[in-house]
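Re: beginner question about structure tokens

> Can someone show what the tokenized structure looks like for a real chain? I only ever see the sequence side.

Sure, here's an example I had lying around. Input first:
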Amino acid sequence: MEMENQNKRRDISSDDLIGERTGELGCCGWVLVIVSFLFALLTFPISIFMCVKIVQEYERAVIFRLGRITDKKAKGPGIFFVLPCTDTFVKVDMRTVSFDIPPQEILTKDSVTVSVDGVVYFRVSCPISSVANVSNADFSTRLLAQTTLRNVLGTKNLSELLSDREGISHSMQASLDDATDPWGIKVERVEIKDVKLPHQLQRAMAAEAEASREARAKVIAAEGEMNASRALKEASLVIAESPSALQLRYLQTLNTIAAEKNSTIIFPLPMDVLSHFMYKK
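And the corresponding structure tokens:
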């Protein structure tokens, strides 16, 4: 509701501002307009080449009559008429325009210097405001995008800058849209293209990530050794319940070795013989 009220207030204020510009021409102004109209009639059909103008589908024309805007709505697309000598018009392109934000050296909230660039997409939503309220809407929007990028990213940490690009883009879009609304500019999208870190910081982050991976690998290997030792303990308890199970396991191991076609000759030795020597004092 608050956003809708703000938009309504903006529309009302812009209409009031345009209404002030489209005031009465005065007596002298109407005299000049009538003279211009009569001149167009007397020079017809030659004057038709000066009176008839055409704008494309993606363009609008803001007409000035004796320095004042003639209507609250821009003309076009298609054919429209102007009076010679008293009327002038400015063409406004309504298509979406994109531009790159030059790389900006930014000091983040945690005192890290980074270079950030981005891209902005915007279009003209009100041709009259874009002509009457700002001298160059395109150039002004480009400069404002650079300062907004620096201001928004200056309040973010490095981790937020690297992980929350979408949130930063939405924040920049809202800030730019609010600032360019009196100029008749609608900011449609803002994207962060690239974040360049200093080489020393890149090496430090790479070393930190490598150390973290090595630590995780050692923990996983230790857990594997612990699980293997538990499995061997359980296997030894099962084999200890039957003396012949150890001999069968021994023969199975010999069969596995023989299947690999190696040249090693193995002589089985009964465990009873070894036990005789082990307990002999």
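Each token stands for a local structural state, so reading them left to right follows the chain. The mean pLDDT is 79.
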